[in-house]
Write a structure and sequence with these properties.
With about 425 residues, the chain is mainly α. Helix content is about 45%, strand content about 10%. A hairpin with a 4-residue loop joins strand 1 and strand 2. It is globular and about 90 Å long.
Amino acid sequence: MNALKSAENRLPSIDDLDRNIVTLAARINAATSELLILIRQFDERAGWLKWGFTNCAEWLHWRCDLSMSAAREKVRVAHALKTLPSIATAFAHGELSYSKVRPLTRVARVDNEKALLAFALKTTASRVEERCRELRCGTADSVGEANRTHTGRSLHVRRNAETGMMTITVELPLETGELLEKALDRARDTATSQTAELVEECWSAQQADALVVIAKAYLSGDGDKTACTSDNYQVTVHVDRSALANGDGRSGLPIESVKRLCCDGDTIVIVENEDGEPLSVGRKTRTVPTAIKRALSARDKGCVFPGCQHTRFVDAHHIKHWSAGGETRLDNLMLLCSRHHRLVHEGGFRIERDYQNRWFFKRPDGRAVPSCGYQAQDMIDDDIDQYIDNHTGEISRSINNPSAEGFSPLIKLPPITPRPAPRLAD
């Protein structure tokens, strides 16, 4: 008995365990900082060439048993810390963990490094990650992030005949996923209020039933009965006023995605200070009133993007966005389908007026999109024009004779058979 008590007395106290864990974690942080410095020096001297690799991340993946994604991040952070002395010093002293340093290096600059460091030292890694994500979304460069998430959307269906079950896996951008979640919440609440026994079901089973309710409502043509009108089902987006005005601030979503969502729909705008504390809450507004939307539908009759035939699932787009002083007036609105609405915001397409004060679309490369669509000759290189005889409609022999001196055709055109002259009436 005395030996057992003696062994228990030798166990460290909770306070000692706490202190030892924190001390060891700080040493790990400092060691990780030293590791990244070595990785940067190794990469700058192209040491990976000695082993026949094409970059440092591949060498780390092979030599240090890291995944490729982790190896790429290590190399990126190592180089980013070279220009962030305050964050690098705190990291070397063990005051910052790698979990905080990694997101900080994506948004920290000379002008905001110290403010971000002060914020990171007094909060958790998850809040640092969220703040840095908001800073990335609050800039114009976030359009790449929006396009990446949009391209990555997917849905997979897997049937298991043995168990009699079907598995549906869907990946969506955050704003679209939030919308789906709100729809499921409303369908679930409606179902539980009408069927008392569903209350006893687990939450995941109720969500599955809600998805079936939505599908049945759509197939039966009663989708409008589940339309959302309650604040419990609104999606709130937090965004800095400066991010909307000049693309320099924080945003819960990529700033162009926020502008697209605000073009047409119910929005709750929450203006926050740099610490994320609400300064004021804007009133809930219907951006496009019903009367204006009816007039807009009667005028445009569908998506107005050249060549688009979609008349359903169209949005009212503010040509001059409301954050830039645009008004909700008929002459500042046009209907765009979901795809072209996204192209105008995140895809780099622009809307401008021509010399007759009419709206037209411009591609990201600056070329105008013709209102009548593209013709076959629009796709032919300008150098070919000199070989076309407008009087006879025949193509120069040089095009059909690639061996002709001084001519290398960019495309191959079939010979054109001249049309016979029309017969005159007797």
